Amino acid sequence: VQLQAYGGGLVQAGGSLRLSCAASGPTFSGFAMAWFRQAPGKEREFVTALSRTDSTYYDDSVNGRFTISRDAAKSTVYLQMNSLKPEDTAVYYCAAKSSLSSIARNFPSWYDYWGQGTQVTVSS
């Protein structure tokens, strides 16, 4: 599975962006998907995840502002980010794991496949 993340950019605080993560490979179904982010000098942190059965998980810092969704026909996962804050500035990575589980985890080592990252910068 190869993941291609795109859609990042520069936005003012309070604005919105939508990130996309396109997956290619033998199959997109049966995968748990997630978004992580990493700011300069910080560890990669969990943002949101979507289980194989489409259960959603959000970090408290983005809950109510960000939405993860999947378009299986396009093998693409989206991250809609609203009410952006300067502290959301980071490189955003999408991740995937082929899993029979109905849950998704919030730590990077659980995921098997990673995209290359897309920069999101929120100005104050």
Topology of this protein?
Elements: E1 2-6, E2 9-12, E3 17-24, E4 31-38, E5 45-50, E6 56-58, E7 66-71, E8 76-81, E9 90-98, E10 113-114, E11 118-123
Parallel strand pairs: 2-11
Antiparallel strand pairs: 1-3, 3-8, 4-5, 4-9, 5-6, 7-8, 9-10, 9-11
Features:
single chain; 124 residues; 7-stranded mixed β-sheet; globular
Q: Characterize the overall form.
A: globular
**Uncertain regions: pLDDT < 50 for 5+ in a row?**
none
What proportion of the residues form beta strands (DSSP E)? Answer: over 45%
Give the proportion of residues in helices.
Answer: under 10%
Q: Alpha-carbon distance between the termini?
A: 37 Å
Determine the mean pLDDT: 94
Count of beta strands: 11
Written as H for each helix and E for each strand, in order along the chain, the element string is: EEEEEEEEEEE
User: In terms of structural class, how would the helical and strand content be classed?
Assistant: mainly beta
Number of helices: 0
Please tell me how large the radius of gyration is: 13 Å
Give a quick account of the main beta sheet: strands, pairing sense, barrel closure: 7 strands, mixed
